[in-house]
Amino acid sequence: GQGAGRTSRTETKHVGRGRTRKRKREEQAMKITVVWARSGKEAVPGGLEVKDGGTVDDLMVAMETKSREGKMATRRKVKLHPERQRFSLPPEQGKKRGEPLKNGKKLSDYGIKTGSVLCFKDLGPQIGYATVFFWEYFGPLAVYPIFYFLQEYIYSQWTPEVTKHPAQTYALVYWSIHYAKRILETFFVHQFSHGTMPIFNLFKNCTYYWGFAAFVSYFINHPLYTPVSPLKMYLGFGLGALCQVSNLYCHLILASLRAKGSKEYLIPRGFLFNICTCANYTAEIYGWLGFNIATQSVAGYLFMFAGAYQMTLWAIAKHKRLRRLYDGKDGREKYPKRFIVIPPFI
Predict the structure, then answer these.
(1) How confident is the model over 258-282, as pLDDT tens digits?
(2) Is there a contact between 79 and 60 (Cβ–Cβ < 8 Å)?
(3) pTM
(4) How far apart are CA 147 and CA 179, in angstroms?
(5) Under DSSP, is residue 330 helix (H, G, I), strand (E, B) or coil?
(6) In degrees, to the nearest 5, what angle opens at C-alpha 327 toward C-alphas 322 and 328?
(7) What is the pLDDT of residues 11-50, one digit of tens each?
(8) Is 5 left (phi over 0), alpha (psi -120 to 50) or beta?
(9) Element containing residue 169 per DSSP (H, E)
(10) End-to-end C-alpha distance for the chain, whole angstroms
């Protein structure tokens, strides 16, 4: 009887300690309500529990665990890896989107506590930036030469004999060096702010680059192509070559800005960056201008304008972000006055 009594008291003691530990864990954990960003409906029944003092990364791990356990308010069972997650604060009045939460930052930095509500978006299946960049640049490198080396087969209905002009040969060399450079920069120079992007971007980007490569090459290598004067050709390719080297140097400057693993936005300085915010885009755009001066094709100019338009949008966004971060207030440095991307126009 005494032994049974001692066992009973011991078990009761252990149960009591277990409940105490569980209660302490619950006190130290924050319970956060998560809703879908688009509908505002609850995304995780019962919310997410994250340790007090936790980070955005801890929040993402908790979300991944819930998705693996099938405890999401969705019919589709998906594994939400951190790369495909985006959390943000509820949008302020009059705004469509709230401030996104950044990896590595503490939840307390955003004023998040027990009972807080966060908006969540599933970014969909992801793919690495370097992978996307390789395939979108490999396409133009492979597609463009087809029209140069197979002229007699592709254009046989126009003329049985094909004469290659020096401008066509130099255009092939310029195009190939440009995209070979881009691939090498992808693996040995660029530091990406984000590790992945939606997999749909692979198909979108490849369609753009591969399609324009065929479009431009078809007309420049056409038997009826009329080359420009030798002077204009050499001036154009000379400008293009200078801009290609400048573009590489700008990329090296950008790569040296951040310490490895850092995602901080810093002010680029030196060389063309003393003139404009996105000097790498500047060199890229004027490089294609040189290519088009030397080749003179409607397809080439359309490619240049399409690229310049997209790069200008990116440059304006980057310029605004740097001006916002370096506003000269509270001891912060004031962003210097510069062109954005296409001096002397923008």
Answers:
(1) 887 777 889 999 999 999 999 999 9
(2) no
(3) 0.84
(4) 17
(5) coil
(6) 135
(7) 545 545 555 554 544 447 899 999 999 889 999 998 999 9
(8) alpha
(9) helix 166-188
(10) 92
